[in-house]
Write a structure and sequence with these properties.
alpha+beta; Metal Binding Protein, Guanine Nucleotide Exchange Factor, Chain A; Peptide Methionine Sulfoxide Reductase, Chain A; globular
Length: 346
Amino acid sequence: MLPTLLQRNWSPQQTEVEKDQKAFLMLVERRQVMKRTIFIILMGSWTLAGCAQNNKQQKMNSQFRALTPQEEHVIVHKGTERPFTGKYDQFFEEGTYLCKRCGAELYHSTDKFDAGCGWPSFDDEIPGAVKRTPDADGMRTEITCNACGAHLGHVFLNEGFTAKNTRHCVNSVSLEFIPAKTAMTATTDTAYFAGGCFWGVEYYLEQAPGVISVESGYMGGNKKNPSYQDVSHHKTGHAETVRVIFRPSETSYEELTRLFFEIHDPTQLNRQGPDIGEQYRSAIFYRTEEQKKIVEGLIQLLKGKGYKVTTQVAPAATFWKAEGYHQDYYVKKGGTPYCHQRVNRF
């Protein structure tokens, strides 16, 4: 601010130089005001987006299990438990291994073997359950829960232990085990839905009771780790898919599937509203025969009501998580989906 010069009155005696100086100073002041205004607007939008993101993160954190100091050291801070001390090292009961923090299913006992290394070893994971990330030094590849990011351990290839030539070396404290006979009591379950642009499907399913997390990604194609450009250019056969982690104690797979059929139009073939292409097809990828039975029953119910359902029903394959800018799109951007809205179909 330059009040002395800006508050002076013009007079005929002023020189051209003084006039030019005053005009310049007025221009500088206007630009400063504009910059402050733009800054205030940006700060407001960032604050609103940040609040929405923080509220979602707080909701997710409240759904996670409380961790002991040892569990937090490994799961959050990427530590390693001492070899031959873990609960599941020499443990070979039939059942399913879950993420200790969020309860997502990670491994089947049928894929576990004794590598003699001192940590639980698996030569395969449940499709889409585990994420691989090279360590910063490039020496090893870290494995984390794809649902919540919990550190599990590392994966090693070409060691010759099994025909799959893969060893997931996992910390016992990162795992929870559910015996086969009580698998139905698992604290979380997973569903995969494809119904047009994954932004809109994610938006509505995130709001459903009992849902822990929803992630956008790709499934049903023929290329490993496809990019959005690969999928949108029809090069891979993938569908834009969301992975839903939910608590069966608070909602059911059938309730979520009913919601899915009501937030998109299952009668549209290879499109959803203005979005056209096989990546926008309606599809449900089931994990179990029970899920398949539920989906087929609901489709028959809709057909009985006169709907010409085109939804593809196929077994779940690897879920490839989409790029970061696709995650929580409407939480970050604001607004509501442009091609999804809920319609009562049941």
